[in-house]
Specification:
The structure is a homodimer of 257-residue chains. The first copy, chain A, is α+β, with helices and mostly antiparallel strands and 257 residues long. The first copy, chain A, has 2 domains: 155 residues, Sandwich (Jelly Rolls); 86 residues, Arc Repressor Mutant, subunit A (Orthogonal Bundle), CATH 1.10.10. In chain A, 37% of the residues lie in helices and 21% in strands. Chain A has a 4-stranded antiparallel β-sheet with strand order 1-8-3-6. Chain A has a 4-stranded antiparallel β-sheet with strand order 2-7-4-5. In chain A, a hairpin with a 2-residue loop joins β10 and β11. Chains A and B meet through β5 and α4 of A and β5 and α4 of B. Chain A binds a DNA duplex (30 and 30 nucleotides) through α7.
Chain lengths: 257, 257
DNA sequence: ATGCGGCTTTGATCCATATCAAAAGGAAAA
DNA sequence: TTTTCCTTTTGATATGGATCAAAGCCGCAT
């Protein structure tokens, strides 16, 4: 069974916020007061939801959702990062997204999963059987609304990514990605630019980056090098980027005329 | 105000079907008994929903959803076809989907619309203000479930498209598209192949096709010509395709090894 | 019928990115 | 420290699809 702490956040960056529960109690696990879904629920409701979840711990590299398999579960990530992807028989891979702590996952599925999911590092998550979560909806309609919000936000991101994959050049893809990643890390509010010289962790291999952006690792590397040469970013080490001139980055990303 | 007929179908091809209303009355407009959402509702509920919708008629070429504008409405298409797309300032365009009769539209939006929508021919649709539809949820939770199903199905399609745009070759994109279009036209059930020599209407310009598949019109034309040369399809006229050998098409689309 | 204009196809060439190859880090083991 | 192995960067070359150009096709108005 899962704890309040583990359920506390159903994906932070949502387009529509639910009202906070005014007198939320502090978390049994960590003492903090959690934002997100839980604050919209009563204690009884929370208890109800908690019973529907199993806690799971995954080693790095574990593929815990398999494309094409029967879609049996939803997941809420508490710790670690997950790669979502689709593959072709000859090994080509398209990463469709990355999910970190607070992300809710499993919506892109009908009868069967449309994607695979793999732990990038040590991952802890809450697992809900689809049937039990659907049953919970009867008691907690607010949860269904929350899921709809999550799905709608996913759709916005998916359409952005289609524009990127279908119509942007390599350097535009890299620039777009860096800015989107900054938003994701909450280095800046959605739709705003980060401050000049903002520092950003980027815990992805070049291979992941390439498979997410529809490029090869060589092109990713070359594009990053070019942005560095042009003084728009700096790369102190492989997993860190300094956004020296975010404005310039944004002009490239949006193909400003 | 909209009629039962106009509301009768909230997008046909759904991954999860709602139970039919056993004793659905026939449609006031057309006399037929409609499948889809309406059959899951009582007459009172239907009446309630009907009041929340305005009927709208659009001339070909009308852009009735503008990317970046405040997202105020959802739409349910009754007649005609719609292009959904995103653009870059220099005119590059990525079509993210096509919506025909029965399609529900407007989910890919947070505060603002993530896409634009344009009537491809004469379109009739029902328009719901977001606020009023949200209000309807209180009375008709089944509607919210339905919308979640629609959104989940959209996500499945979006991920398929990301794989196509990020990792498939031109000819694979064309082959994938033709099979997906056949499913959409219900020439074959989802996940199955059409019968050999199935005939298919394709009411899209090469430009639309190119902007949907992330290619140029020349490449679209060349790829279609090649499939024709190889005896896999036939093209009796611009807006009609014969799927001579669907199995071969599928092997190309899925990059079978 | 004839001619015009827009779409589509086909051909020739170019170029952005992939592919192939090798050198340069950088972390962990010996 | 040195070696090994793996990832990343950089360089050289190839190529799939874009771009540029022209010819075909077809509907429509005259």
């Amino acid at each position: 069974m899962a704890t309040l702490h583990e359920l506390s956040e159903f994906r932070r960056p949502l387009p529509i916020n639910l009202a906070n529960r005014p007198t939320a109690s502090n978390c049994d696990d960590c003492g903090a007061r959690h934002s997100g879904l839980c604050n919209a629920l009563t204690d009884d409701e929370l208890e109800f939801l908690t019973r529907a979840a199993q806690r799971v711990s995954l080693a790095p590299g574990t593929v815990f959702v398999e494309e094409g398999e029967k879609a049996s579960y939803f997941y809420n990530i508490n710790q670690g990062n997950v790669r979502l992807f689709k593959s072709l028989p000859d090994g080509r891979r398209q990463i469709t997204g990355f999910a970190g702590p607070g992300y809710f996952l499993g919506l892109a599925a009908g009868e069967n999963n449309a994607f695979s999911a793999e732990a990038m590092d040590h991952v802890k998550l809450c697992r809900f059987s689809r049937a039990s979560l659907m049953a919970v909806f009867e008691e907690l309609p607010v949860l269904e609304r929350k899921l709809l919000d999550v799905a709608m936000h996913e759709l916005v991101l998916a359409q952005q990514q289609m524009l990127l994959l279908g119509r942007k050049t390599a350097i535009e893809r890299i620039a777009s990605f860096l800015l989107a990643w900054a938003e994701r890390l909450e280095i800046c509010p959605a739709g705003r630019l980060p401050a000049p010289n903002a520092v950003m962790k980027l815990p992805l291999s070049r291979t992941d980056l390439a498979d997410y952006l529809g490029l090869t690792i060589e092109t990713v590397s070359r594009s990053l090098s070019q942005l560095k040469r042009d003084g728009i970013i700096d790369i102190p080490n492989i997993h860190e980027i300094i956004l020296t001139r975010p404005r310039a980055l944004s002009e490239i990303a949006e193909a400003a005329v």
